[in-house]
Amino acid sequence: MSKLTVEQVMDLAPVIPVLVVDRVEDALPIARALVAGGLPALEVTLRTPAALDVIREMAKVEGAVVGAGTVLNPAQLDAAMEAGARFIVSPGLTKSLGKAAIAAKIPFLPGTATAGDIMRGMDMGLTHFKFFPAETSGGLPALKALAAPLHTARFCPTGGITPQSAPEWLAQPFIKCVGGSWVVPKGPVDPDKIEALAREAAALPR
């Protein structure tokens, strides 16, 4: 399985679905529907007891590039990689997690919300960041203000992004993609609905 860079992961589609999956049996139908709809990069958040098994199942789907989200520490990083995660997303950036991710040579999107967060990441050699929580951290005006002086950084805003607001975010040159939970609605899994929402998301201009 070829390794991707963090930039290549972000370039796969305009939207990275942010997935909270409670049941392992839902993993394959969700992943197949998302990939069929044109969204191959899948962020499975480590918010449920089933998450690592969900990553293992989704990794079996041809064309899926499965990552782990809500990774908080090096132990979770190791567990996610053992389960087959090909990229790592965290809500924030700590020295221990950053060093572990860099040492593991795995694509890493750490959460940032301030200039200090981004500068600490850049000091570690990181260039691509999650802007989180995007809307409650000041939205697009805040990220524009941060991206101006930190002009070499690239971002994936996540948190409160909607199909309606995504195009405005994606129009910015410093934004590579957005994270979105809307493509997999809460409730019983409906693969046809998920695939349709994924197609709409995959067609967003950037």
UniProtKB/TrEMBL annotation:
Protein's name in the database: 2-dehydro-3-deoxy-phosphogluconate aldolase
Subunit structure comment from the entry: Homotrimer.
EC number: 4.1.2.14
InterPro entries membership: Aldlse_KDPG_KHG (IPR000887), Aldolase_TIM (IPR013785), KDPG/KHG_AS_1 (IPR031337), KDPG/KHG_AS_2 (IPR031338)
GO molecular function terms listed in the Swiss-Prot or TrEMBL record: 2-dehydro-3-deoxy-phosphogluconate aldolase activity
Gene behind the chain: eda
Family listed: Belongs to the KHG/KDPG aldolase family.
Reaction it catalyzes: 2-dehydro-3-deoxy-6-phospho-D-gluconate = D-glyceraldehyde 3-phosphate + pyruvate
Keywords: Carbohydrate metabolism, Lyase, Schiff base
Protein's pathway: Carbohydrate acid metabolism; 2-dehydro-3-deoxy-D-gluconate degradation; D-glyceraldehyde 3-phosphate and pyruvate from 2-dehydro-3-deoxy-D-gluconate: step 2/2
